[in-house]
Write the structure tokens for this entry.
Amino acid sequence: MFLSKKLELGTTLTIDWEMTPDYTFGTFESWGGRERFRSSAERIYYFFIDDWGDNPRLCLMERGIKHARVMAEILAPRDMIRRCVAGHGKTSLFERSFAIDEPLKKWLIAHVIDGRDDSLIIPLEPEKPAPLAETDLPGRNAPVPELTRVCLPGEPEEMSEADVAGLAVRFNLYDSERNPTGTFANYLVDNGDNATVSDLVTGLMWQREGVDIMSSRMLLREIDRLNRNGHDGYSDWRLPTMPEALSLIGAEKNSHGQHIHDCFSPHQPFIFTAATRRPGGCWFVDYKQGKAFWSSGTIPGGFGRLCRSERTA
């Protein structure tokens, strides 16, 4: 196939015209994905619209179990792409990847699948995750200024929208929608292991990176596995509560465009919290948007950034 040759895949690329961004979590990230595919090496390809930037782009995605790579941008007519996005109507701020419509499908078949104009296909290099850099934080044994310790709620809760808003105000936590004047001040120190930092204000140790995107069920299993193996020397890692996760948010964006200190990896842009939503759903904290949000899906997916308490009382 012409498209396969342009992307130097070496094998014939088959497009799954039924796959959409909405279907990908249940297919590739949730517990059911491994029942649908024979191995983690299997790949499918589909077209979608990426609307996270200033202008929507038509892209080709390569997908597998725990694998996602945008292979190419397709230079379709801009007006067709914009009409497709508009046709999806009002959507959540967190839903900026869209399925293609029938006009775009017909255009792709005529100009890309059956066509020969390779100038319409722009191959994209895979993104290489940057290793964690050294922090600019004081070391664990450095002198500490006088601090006001804050004891945040550390037990899982069922919370309504009003509860989250009230919590943000009560502890002066920043949330770009609910409490944009919040100025909670951490005091982070580098534990010297290239894996964790500790907040001397809240008494919490945090992973600098975290856990890959998973369903809530899979994430709890992964936390249990990490604790059984003594991850980074400890066996009491857990999901942060809502106020604990919000305590890492700052009003200013870091060098990765996230509302969190630069010492944290940018590859966990939104994380599960230990809070469930009343009347239903899961609460997350999104460091790109600087706010809490909820998902009503039965098996919502998200990243994990685990914490543990260092206070003995």
